[in-house]
Amino acid sequence: MRLLVVEDDPDLNRQLVTALTDAGYAVDAAKDGEEGHYLGETEPYDAVILDLGLPVLDGVSVLEKWRRADKKMPVLILTARDRWSDKVQGFDAGADDYVAKPFHMEEVLARVRALLRRSAGHATSEISCGPLLLDTKSARVTVDGHAIKLTSLEFRLLAYLMHHKGKVVSRTELVEHLYDQDFDRDSNTIEVFVGRLRKKLGVDVLKTIRGMGYCVSEPDDAA
Q1: H-helix or E-strand containing 48?
Q2: What is the distance between the alpha carbons of residues 194 and 1, in angstroms, rounded to a whole number?
Q3: DSSP codes joined into one string, 11-30
Q4: Cα–Cα distance for residue pair 185/221, rounded to 1 Å
Q5: Class of CATH domain 126-216
Q6: How far apart are CA 95 and CA 107, in angstroms?
Q7: Using one digit for the tens of pLDDT, what is the confidence trace for 125-182?
Q8: Which homologous superfamily does the CATH classification assign to the domain defined by 2-119?
Q9: How far apart are CA 170 and CA 186, in angstroms?
């Protein structure tokens, strides 16, 4: 899953990026509204954390521009403002949730997980496919109750496919959503990670759809 953080406070920006990266996400960052708007307009993010009090272009204006451009990624707004009218303005502009500063980082992480779940149509933190279970809260993967140890990129790949269970995801889409903008991207590495995942999982849930991409589906489903 690939996220965008738009926050002008350098310390908070860094803290958010670090916490989200440690939680297993690919994260890009912007420090003003203009840069944030450009990234959100041109890159395919799974969710955005957006401060309202941004320089150059304020957060509400950024969000309104995204929604007018039909950008549908879920957006969590951050605000130090106490007035309820500011929160209403954010929701009216197209926000999906908000956190008021100061906040606990765990709350932000929980709200991001919830946004990602809901946008993919999942009601709980646990996503299952046959004997395979992925818990987005604990970042734990099990098969028939046995824990499977994955690298951060393997987990990120599996999590994206599990969030889109039953859908064919192309290599290009995976590359766009698994790596941040500074990563040296190579779609061929996706095949390597898929191969490793299949061996570690040991169950036939991760399928290759020739010429199209990959799909996670129940073991007895036709690919």
Answers
A1: strand 47-51
A2: 16
A3: HHHHHHHHHHHHTT-EEEEE
A4: 32
A5: mainly alpha
A6: 17
A7: 899 999 999 999 898 999 999 999 999 889 999 999 999 999 999 998 998 998 887 6
A8: Response regulator (3.40.50.2300)
A9: 13
Specify the DSSP class assigned to residue 44: -
The amino acid occupying position 207 is: K
Q: Would you call 128 helix, strand, or coil by DSSP?
A: strand
**pLDDT tens column, 100-113:** 998 999 999 999 99
CATH 1.10.10.10 range(s) for the chain read: 126-216
Asked if residue 3 lies in contact with residue 46, where contact means CB atoms within 8 angstroms, the answer is yes
How sure is the predictor about 184, in pLDDT bands with cuts at 50, 70 and 90?
low
- What tokens does 185 get? 């991207």
Q: Is the pTM of this model over 0.70?
A: yes
pLDDT at 37: 98
Residue located via tokens 């007018």: 68
Work out the average pLDDT over 183-207: 85
DSSP string computed for 93-116: HT-SEEEESS--HHHHHHHHHHHH
Any residues with CB less than 8 A from the CB of 57 and at least 6 apart, and which? 32, 33, 34, 36, 37
Contact 108, 19 (CB under 8 A): yes
Phi, psi (deg, nearest 5) at residue 55:
-75, 165
Q: Where in the chain is the domain with CATH 3.40.50.2300?
A: 2-119
Let me know: does 177 contact 164? Beta carbons within 8 Å: no
Q: Which pLDDT value is given to residue 79? A: 86
Q: Does residue 222 have a pLDDT over 50? A: no
What's the confidence (pLDDT) of residue 223?
Answer: 43
